[in-house]
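STRUCTURE REQUEST FORM
Protein name: TetR/AcrR family transcriptional regulator
Source organism: Actinocorallia aurantiaca
Requested output: structure tokens
Priority: standard
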Amino acid sequence: MSTTEEPAPAPRENRLDRRKARTRAALVAAAGRLLAEQGRAEVSIQEITDAADVGFGSFYNHFKDKNELFDAAIAETLAEHARLVEQATAPLRDPAEVFAASLRLTGRLRRSHPQMARILLHTGLPYLTSDQGMAFHALRDLRAADAADRLDIGDPQVALACTGGALLGMLQLLDARPDLDVDAAACQLAVNLLRMFGLDREEAHRIATRPLPALP
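Status: completed
Returned output:
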């Protein structure tokens, strides 16, 4: 008579694993704050561990150097930005509106998620050619709008460079001019890019002024 063996229980996360995860998360969060305040600044590891409220020796249990830590913080920010925008635009069906809404939501980050906005501003340009986060999703949206004959983007990589450069320029403007109307600036950017990619003024304005969901 054959018997069926019970599957072995999954190993339970022990206290040390949980503590290591908390320490790593604290270091990444501290790096994110420093990126938002100063960019990829020349700060010491002691300053980083002080900001994270962890022991100095803990740093090297997780990262080989500061660059690796800052890269992890940037990757986490890019992934979170992409997740928030994708979740907010999921109900939209018009690819041109998805593209415009993504631009507008990113423009609103200065108000809704200021630390994320400043990290994108300080570190975003090199990531316009990335295969993750903001660049990946923007390129996907541009290609989808082009395939649906809603936008005429030409070379996708050039279209991405135009879009990303304009978006980072707007984030810089909004950071330097806190008196500006964030919504109006984001709408104007969306109108300008929609027109650049082939829509007429009236349709571009209509799409760029539709009700916009809030970021989670």
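Reviewer notes: The mean pLDDT is 88. Residues 16-63 form a domain with the Arc Repressor Mutant, subunit A fold (CATH 1.10.10.60).
Form closed.
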